[in-house]
Amino acid sequence: MPDLFGWEFASDPYPAYHRLREHAPVYRTTLPSGVEAWLVTRYADARQALADPRLSKNPLRHRGHAHGKGKVGIPGERSAGLMTHLLNIDPPDHTRLRRLVSKAFTPRRVAAFAPRVQQLTDRLIDGFAGRGEADLIHEFAFPLPIYAICDMLGVPPEDQDDFRDWAGMMIRHDLPDGRRTPRGGVARAVKRMRTYLAELIHRKRETLGGDGEADDLISGLIRASDHGEHLTENEAAAMAFILLFAGFETTVNLIGNGTYALLRHPEQRARFQRAAEAGDQPLLAGAVEELLRYDGPVEIATWRFATEPVTLGGQWIAEGDPVLVVLAAADRDPARFDRPDVLDLTRRDNQHLGYGHGIHYCLGAPLARLEAQTALVTLLRRLPDLRLAVDPDDLRWRGGLIMRGLRTLPVEFTAEPPAAAG
């Protein structure tokens, strides 16, 4: 079996996933944390597992109780009282909480947010367009979704830079001087964010005077709680937390991975730029779907635990065993996709699993798609000769179990003149 989870694997996991799909499509392995889990790599099995009610999202279903030791889930979420969010619960609680927040991500609400996403995108590009060089992760892909989700949640502008710092610590984001966030910093950042969210919820509850006032998501959660929806303060804080956490890192990686894929495939990049110039919305939307399939932001879906013995892909899985659905492997399955290792922005039949499937399908997917399309279109329109500033072999990927993304993405381009950048 292939060597999993080393640096070489992080740089390009797809050959290893190909071998697993061929020889051990449901494979039991020991993760770097020491937890044993099943990896599901074929598309049909993955789709089945994502929608199987026998696979619980509740970490307490794990017979080894690894969550209490920080080995599954988000470090620090238990001690910070942030367990009751959508990634950790099952129906009926999941159904109730998802209904409350789904109103923020309707097509109408997301479309209304488009001008703000464009404004943020232009402002960030303004910050480096006159230099002729940039790190697109630190200066663009990372801050854009942070500020966007903060706006949706209702975090005041003067507090959003603090959120940016905490978010960077939570994903052990590289600092500008090249240092790494200490491992213990993840849990500390989670606790700081929990403290802040509790205070923010308290302040908003005191100032809410009626249904017609604040339209942000946290205010909506408070109103729902006050109107008898049985939403506790812990649930409100946990929901705000996971929407921030899940709502930015996926988009960071979608923009970063997507930009990198386009730069590595000149013909597809040229096709994308022509579509952007022509306003070909169907092709642009399809391009984002293909970038999600080809090298998506979520490599492995979040944890699931068997609530009873389950047979999956011919393998018997015991009650309490963790199951990890490898979205990156499923979305390159030749049994489902024609020429799966080829980036084709015109791909038609593209029912990828990049944002999951079933009742846990990513709630914020419409916002992430809007941000990614706006970011890529604007970036390549304003900086049409954008190019990598380093050899691709010199790029490093963040090691991790769930997400897949670049640490940095150094680029060069013809600098905008001062008037254009202003």
What is the topological layout?
Layout: H1 7-11, H2 14-23, E1 26-30, E2 36-40, H3 43-50, E3 55-56, H4 93-102, H5 107-126, E4 133-135, H6 136-141, H7 143-153, H8 160-170, H9 184-207, H10 217-226, H11 233-264, H12 266-278, H13 281-295, E5 304-306, E6 310-312, E7 315-317, E8 322-325, H14 327-330, H15 365-382, E9 387-388, E10 410-412, H16 418-421
Parallel strand pairs: 2-8
Antiparallel strand pairs: 1-2, 3-5, 4-10, 5-8, 6-7, 9-10
Helix pairs in contact: 5-7, 5-15, 7-8, 7-11, 8-9, 9-11, 11-12, 11-13, 11-15, 13-15
Supply database-style keywords.
single chain; 422 residues; alpha+beta; Cytochrome p450; 5-stranded mixed β-sheet; 10 strands; globular
What can you tell me about this protein's structure?
The protein is of the alpha+beta class and 422 residues long. The chain has one domain: Cytochrome p450 (Orthogonal Bundle), CATH 1.10.630.10. It has 16 helices and 10 strands. It has a 5-stranded mixed beta sheet. Strands 4-10-9 form a 3-stranded antiparallel beta sheet. A two-stranded antiparallel ribbon has the order 6-7. A hairpin with a 5-residue loop joins strand 1 (26-30) and strand 2 (36-40). Helix 5 (107-126) packs across helix 7 (143-153), helix 9 crosses helix 11 and helix 11 packs across helix 12. The longest helix has 32 residues, at 233-264. Residues 173-181 have low confidence and may be disordered.
